[in-house]
Structure formats: structure tokens, C-alpha cells
């Protein structure tokens, strides 16, 4: 079991120094790679394995990482951009949710995931305190906060739909899964719309792709009814 605060924040690509600087600037705790979480009891080495040929190899020596596009855990296959539920550190907390951004194998054979986090509204701290207004109990906030964690933390895949704020939310019975309409800034502790001009090109492109995939999955959602304002 793992905690978002305890996840290892190390680079898994050539921009290691930039990555470490970024995660520290987010005010998150960092740990050295040798302090990895141990696998849950009952997990055997054969339960976890990479799938396919390596995508690339980064770093050297003890820091060497072999990157893959997929892995298999207990018979289930996961790939880059899959959204997964992750075990929390105790049974009283809801599972965490993340998108798989990188899959690596360390020198000791451990398989690790680099993920971007989703935040539940009650987990996202507000700069001036208080709680965020939530439109639907399925709602999550996306973030560009990223951490590395063992693949043994994965419970199973889940569905997260990115819905533009001018569209009606899909009906739960027809389209199960979580809903995202905002991006949470973990530094400024603010919420942003998908179309706010605060993202660099790469991040904006990523959000646009999430929306496109969700719309393709959900179909053409109706527009929200325009609000009518009465003036005296």
C-alpha cells in the first residue's frame, strides 16, 4: 500500500535534474530511489513483468532504467495513458487515481510507474481554505503533479471522462466512470478550466487529447442550457 505523500519523486528520463527541480517546487516530499516501497505481501516476482521490446534506456549504472510501453501484473495488461486506481496506505482512505505516463524497470528488476495524479475535491487544498464547489459526486480534478510508484500499487483500470464545461454531464447509468472538468494547480492551489491560457503548448495539447478521446467515447453530449438573467 502506498501514500501519495510517500511516492518516490525521481526522474525516469534524461531530464532528471529538471524533473527533481519541478517536483521540489511543488512543495512535495522527495525520497531517494533506494527508499522504494516494498511489494505487498503475497506478490511473487512472476506476477509483474514488462511486455514487448524496450522503448528506450536512460541513465547508467545503478540509476539505469529500461522503459517499456506496457506491463503485466497478475494477468492483467496495462499500457501508457491507462488510468488506474491505486491502493492507499490504509483501508479507511479511498483509492488514488493516476494516468500512467512512463513504465520503467530498475536495475534490481523492480517495475515502476510514473503517473500524473487526479485529485478528489476533498483532497485538493484551496489557497484560502474552504471547499471547492462540486457539480457531481463523480468529479475529479486533473493535475500535472507527477510521482513514481511500484506497479504493485495498481488495483485495476478505471474510466475518467474529460467533459468540456459547456457540455451536459453524461448519465451515470449509460457512462460509468469519473468526470473531470477542471485542472488543479498544486502550487497555486487553484482550479483552471481546460481552455484557460495558463498552460504551455505541451500541456494544452495533452488536455485537448483527453477531451477528444472522451468525446469519442461518450458521443455528442448536449450543450448546457444558457443561463437566463432577469434584470429589474
TrEMBL record:
PROSITE patterns: BAH (PS51038). GO terms for molecular function: chromatin binding. Residues 1-55 are annotated as: Disordered. This is Uncharacterized protein LOC108824844. InterPro entries: BAH_dom, BAH_sf. Pfam families: BAH. Gene3D superfamilies: 2.30.30.490. Residues 76-195 form the BAH domain. It comes from the Eukaryota. It comes from Raphanus sativus.
Amino acid at each position: 500500500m502506498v501514500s501519495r505523500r510517500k511516492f518516490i519523486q525521481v526522474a525516469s528520463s534524461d531530464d532528471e535534474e529538471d524533473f527533481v527541480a519541478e517536483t521540489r517546487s511543488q512543495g512535495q516530499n522527495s525520497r531517494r530511489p533506494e527508499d522504494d516501497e516494498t511489494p505487498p505481501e503475497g506478490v511473487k516476482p512472476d506476477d509483474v513483468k514488462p511486455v514487448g521490446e524496450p522503448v528506450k534506456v536512460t541513465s547508467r549504472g545503478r540509476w539505469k532504467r529500461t522503459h517499456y510501453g506496457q506491463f503485466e501484473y497478475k494477468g492483467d495488461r496495462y499500457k501508457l495513458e491507462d488510468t488506474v486506481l491505486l491502493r492507499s496506505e490504509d483501508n479507511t482512505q479511498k483509492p488514488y487515481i493516476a494516468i500512467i505516463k512512463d513504465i520503467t524497470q530498475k536495475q534490481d528488476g523492480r517495475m515502476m510507474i510514473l503517473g500524473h495524479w487526479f485529485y478528489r475535491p476533498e483532497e485538493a487544498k484551496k489557497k484560502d481554505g474552504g471547499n471547492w464547489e462540486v457539480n457531481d459526486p463523480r468529479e475529479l480534478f486533473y493535475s500535472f503533479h507527477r510521482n513514481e510508484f511500484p506497479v504493485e500499487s495498481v488495483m485495476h483500470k478505471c474510466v475518467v471522462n474529460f467533459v468540456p464545461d459547456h457540455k451536459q454531464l453524461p448519465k451515470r447509468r449509460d457512462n460509468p466512470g469519473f468526470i473531470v472538468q477542471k485542472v488543479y494547480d498544486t502550487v497555486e492551489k487553484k482550479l483552471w478550466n481546460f481552455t484557460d491560457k495558463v498552460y504551455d503548448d505541451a500541456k494544452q495539447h495533452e488536455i485537448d487529447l483527453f477531451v477528444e478521446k472522451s468525446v469519442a467515447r461518450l458521443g455528442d453530449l448536449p450543450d448546457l442550457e444558457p443561463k437566463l438573467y432577469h434584470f429589474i
